[in-house]
Amino acid sequence: MTGLTNFESGHTDMVHDAQLDYYGRRLATCSSDRTVKVFDIVGDHHTHLADLRGHEGPVWQVSWGHPKYGSILASCSFDHRVIIWKEGQGNQWQQAYITPGNLHTASVNSISWAPYELGLILACASSDGTVSLVEYKADGSWETTKLPGGHSVGCTAVSWAPANSPGALVSSKQAPAGPVKRLVTSGCDNLVKVWRYGELGWADEEALTGHTDWVRDAAWAPSLGLPKNTIASAGQDGQVFVWSERLAGGGWERKLVCDFKVPVWRVSWSTTGSILAVSDGNNAVTLWKESLDGLWQQITQ
After folding, report:
1. How many domains does the chain contain in total?
2. What percent of the chain clears pLDDT 90, i.e. is strictly above it?
3. Is the keyword Methyltransferase in the record (predicted)?
4. What CA–CA distances, in Å, run from 287 to 94, 221, 260, 268?
5. What is the pLDDT of residue 262?
């Protein structure tokens, strides 16, 4: 978020997430004060546009939909629910959809919009161990489905693979023509799981082991300029791994980026997928890049 200076958000409790929209012109924030706020960003200036209220607990994450579908924002909360907000005329925001009370039985910790090529689909990860999908249908309704199984304890994060998954067409597992539907999730069972949508629906494709404690976050790298599928994961154990999919025999190869010796909360890729940002328990954010010899090195700023 270069060019954006610190500013007073107006939240009355801890801020858990802040996300810029596709064009970098809007910022959404969410907080333990149960609200979502939307700001207009122009250079170093920001203007408060809206307070979105509807959650009954701390709001953990916000996620912008692709502008192809209008101005859409999703939020997830400790109150077991996800709210999808849509902007109408004159900056009036409305609740376009709220997930039913029985969809999740515990906190919804993470949300992620699918690549726009797949349609308007939101994946949701919950402390009840399950992952749900909320999809906008042609008739204007929203449909919810659950991935089979999930994580045996809680699910902490969810992230979509790029629709034009690199190497998908030469994978040993015959990939369907057209956009690829794949997800990665992380859980309190110390696992990173890869999911794929095929002829029989969603299936748990691979469970990646290596973490020795809760996996706090997992992020699938954008495929711009990357010849392979790549996932980053961050753990309560202090370790950050980068996983690369092997095309020949299938499976994933694990590389340790760093052992931070403190819990690591979040990992986030640059838009080209070449730089990894890591947020750790010491309130530090570091940037990492893979060197020519395949080792991950910190970029000093």
Report:
1. 1
2. 79
3. no
4. 37, 14, 13, 10
5. 97
Query: Is the residue at 281 inside a domain?
Result: no
Closest by alpha carbon to 267, among 258, 280, 256? 280
What are the residues facing 120 on neighbouring strands?
none
Collapsed DSSP state (helix, strand, coil) of residue 144: strand
Decide: helix, strand or coil at residue 62: strand
For 139, the token pair is 């008739």
Residue 72 lies in a domain: yes
Q: Which amino acid is at 287?
A: L
Which structural domain, as residue segments, surrounds residue 74? 31-38+51-268
Q: Are 52 and 42 in contact (CB under 8 A)?
A: no
Residue with tokens 């034009």: 164
280 and 262 in contact (C-beta within 8 Å)? yes
What DSSP character marks residue 273?
S
Asked if residue 43 is part of any domain, the answer here is: no
Determine if the pTM surpasses 0.85. Answer: yes
Residue 1 pLDDT: 38
Burial readout 53-64 (b: 16 or more C-beta within 10 A, e: otherwise):
ebbeebbbbbbb
In terms of Cβ atoms closer than 10 Å to its own Cβ (0-12, 13-18, 19+), residue 46 is middle
* Structure token pair of residue 255: 């590389």
Q: Decide if 173 is inside a domain.
A: yes
Question: How far apart (Å, rounded) are the C-alpha atoms in residues 70 and 42?
Answer: 20
- Give the pLDDT means over successive 10-residue stretches in the chain (301 positions): 61 92 94 96 89 97 96 97 94 95 96 96 97 96 94 96 68 60 97 94 95 97 78 97 85 95 96 92 93 90 63
